[in-house]
Amino acid sequence: MKEEQENKGNKEKQEKIYVMGNWKMNKLPGDVLSFFDKLIPNLRKYINEKTKNGDIKLSTIKKLETIIAVPYIDMFYANLYANEEKRIKIAAQDVFYKNEGSYTGEISPMMLKSIDVNTSIVGHSERRAMGETGDIINKKIKALLDENMKVILCIGENAEDFKKENTKKVLKKELDEALKDISDKKEDIIVAYEPIWAIGTGESCSYDIAKDVIKYIKSEMIKKGFSDPKVVYGGSVNSENSTSYLETGVIDGFLIGTSSLNPNEFLKIYINSAKFLNK
Ligand code: PEP
Predict the structure, then answer these.
(1) Among residues 149, 162, 234, 135, which one has the least CA distance to residue 191?
(2) What CA–CA distances, in Å, run from 84 to 149, 195, 264?
(3) Is the CB of 194 under 6 A from ligand 1?
(4) Which residue's CA is minimally distant from atom 1 of ligand 1?
(5) Which of 217, 178, 177 is nearest to 194 (CA)?
(6) Which of 256, 259, 262, 265 to mutate to test the pocket of ligand 1 (most atoms within 8 A of CB)?
């Protein structure tokens, strides 16, 4: 059993790679147009050229999931592009845990779903730092799953816990809290391992540490009944380091902050992922 769990957490080859962006509180609606007007033609050009000349298989492209979490105010325009280019999906960066009622300023799963946004990040460290608790995160996940939506659950230790070698203890607590009493639809949850000290700092986590920690997260998820846990890495990912993370063999993709704001850089990470998967 133990060996089987280990193997599941350490597959030689990913079946799918998630290339996911998080714009945070950046980009006005006008910037959305310039971003996608650059990204989409170049993405299509790459795919058309490379699949035509046989460098990249179409089946490889189909295994790439591209999701961009945008501010609510940008969703209308971002969705227009996602409708035109189906390879790109739009996600929310946060969501409330009730579907309607007197909750001033909040946005519900049902509201997101009504505009075809079917995924949300939950538990980003920047929201936890504003007071979001494990209990709230758990409620948000349940609310999304109840609406048959997908969840990107962020977990990660801070610099102090990293230095004190408390990483796994912190992650176990965050997983236990977030996934409490979640018995089905587990396949709709992707976990993002985002060490807080690596977010937006340019100081990315070493490949070996990311590999070890993500193997651990997957083994914990398997204990909780996940049959094929998906875990991505986030924290100063860029086009220079993305392939090395994939080469660890356990990382199912990325949640990308800063580098997702630049369409050329985001596309380079997509291309690196395509090349890796195609091998
Ligand atoms: C993030 O905020 O989720 C993130 C990973 O940011 P960055 O890529 O800028 O470190």
Answers:
(1) 234
(2) 21, 35, 19
(3) yes
(4) 257
(5) 217
(6) 256
What tens digit of pLDDT does each residue of 145-172 get? Answer: 999 999 999 999 999 999 999 999 999 9
Of the candidates 223, 145, 235, the one whose C-alpha atom is nearest the C-alpha of residue 190 is 145
Atom of ligand 1 at shortest range from CA of 194:
5
Cα 131 → chain centroid: 21
- Is the CB of 199 within 6 Å of ligand 1? yes
Q: Which atom of ligand 1 is nearest to the CA of 124?
A: 3
Global pTM reads 0.94
User: CB of 151 closer than 6 A to ligand 1?
Assistant: no
**What HEC string does 129-164 produce?**
CCCCCHHHHHHHHHHHHHCCCEEEEEECCCHHHHHC
Q: List, by residue number, the catalytic residues.
A: 124, 194
φ and ψ at 24, to 5 degrees?
A: 55, -145
Q: Is the CB of 236 under 6 A from ligand 1?
A: yes
Task: Say which residue the tokens 């909040």 belong to.
Answer: 106
